[in-house]
Write a structure and sequence with these properties.
Layout (H helix, E strand, L loop, with lengths): L1 H14 L2 E5 L10 H17 L6 E8 L5 E7 L31 H12 L3 E6 L3 E8 L1
Parallel strand pairs: 1-2
Antiparallel strand pairs: 2-3, 3-5, 4-5
Length: about 140
Amino acid sequence: MRRSAYRYQNICEQSGYTLTVDAADPCTVTADPDMMSRVVHNLLANAIHHIGPDGCVALRVKPQPDAAVRVEIEDHGAGIAREDLPYIFDKYYRSRADAGKVGTGLGLSITKAILINHGFPFGVDSEPGKGSIFWFVAH
């Protein structure tokens, strides 16, 4: 995860954005490192694509009581409309708010497939006008 975060810190700096990384404690999870790197890459790219006017994105890794970790990627963008939430992880799905934006609509569906394959719970908490927090729990 640190490699993905480092890569996006450079991208953010070049674009005038800020990526905050809160992952102080090392943690061990049983997962394919390349696939988990892809998940973090997809979620960070999505957050930057929907970055808010403050130009801030956050990556947090929170240890859980059961030896798992919760990974969160947060943006302060427009947020996701309630009617779009059930579909955002579907292949090729693009919300009405994304009409005309660059992208294939595959990143979140790839992320979903990887996380399901690992048996890791995932989701998104979002509110229009306040941004989104995409999360997954790795163990």
